[in-house]
């Protein structure tokens, strides 16, 4: 069974995909960019601020997974991560 995970606390998808999917007991989070969920704009402040925002978006999505019951509440989802690939590139 597949469950869609979505939250307004993380950046909204800019394409036809979900923020995350739960399938077979695993959560697959879509790639996150440094969009501020309140302004829908990329944050200013360089690579440090943008990395922080992208990771906050991931954390918000994982928190939504806990809230929806996709992850046991007593379990910290960030401590159970199997893989977190990070890709940095200049879009300008």
Strand content: 15-25%
- At CATH level 3, the topology is 60s Ribosomal Protein L30, Chain: A
> How much helix is in the residues?
10-25%
| Rg calc | 13 Å
Q: Give a count of the beta strands, DSSP E runs of length 2 or more.
A: 5
What is the H level of CATH, i.e. the homologous superfamily?
RutC-like
CATH architecture field: 2-Layer Sandwich
Order of strands side by side in the largest beta sheet?
1-2-3
Q: What's the pLDDT, averaged over the residues?
A: 81
Q: In one word, what is the shape?
A: globular
* Alpha carbon gap, first and last residue: 40 Å
| CATH class designation | Alpha Beta
Structural class: alpha+beta
What order do the helices and strands follow? EEEEEH
Domain unit count: 1
Query: Mind describing the biggest β-sheet?
Result: 3 strands, antiparallel
Low-pLDDT runs: none
Count up the helices. Answer: 1
Descriptive tags:
92 residues, 60s Ribosomal Protein L30, Chain: A, 5 strands, three-stranded antiparallel beta sheet, alpha+beta
Task: Describe the fold and architecture.
There is one protein chain. With 92 residues, the chain is α+β, with helices and mostly antiparallel strands. The chain has a single domain, classed as RutC-like (60s Ribosomal Protein L30, Chain: A, 2-Layer Sandwich), CATH 3.30.1330. It has one helix and five strands, in the order E-E-E-E-E-H. The strands form two sheets. The protein has a three-stranded antiparallel β-sheet with strand order 1-2-3. The chain is globular and about 40 Å long.
């Amino acid at each position: 069974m597949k469950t869609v995970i979505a939250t307004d606390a993380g950046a909204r998808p800019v394409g036809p995909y979900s923020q995350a999917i739960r399938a077979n007991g695993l959560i697959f989070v879509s790639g996150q960019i440094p969009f501020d969920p309140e302004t829908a704009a990329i944050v200013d402040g360089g690579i440090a601020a943008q990395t922080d925002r992208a990771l906050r978006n991931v954390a918000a999505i994982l928190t939504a997974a806990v809230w929806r019951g996709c992850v046991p509440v007593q379990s910290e989802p960030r401590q159970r991560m199997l893989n977190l690939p990070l890709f940095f590139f200049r879009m300008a």
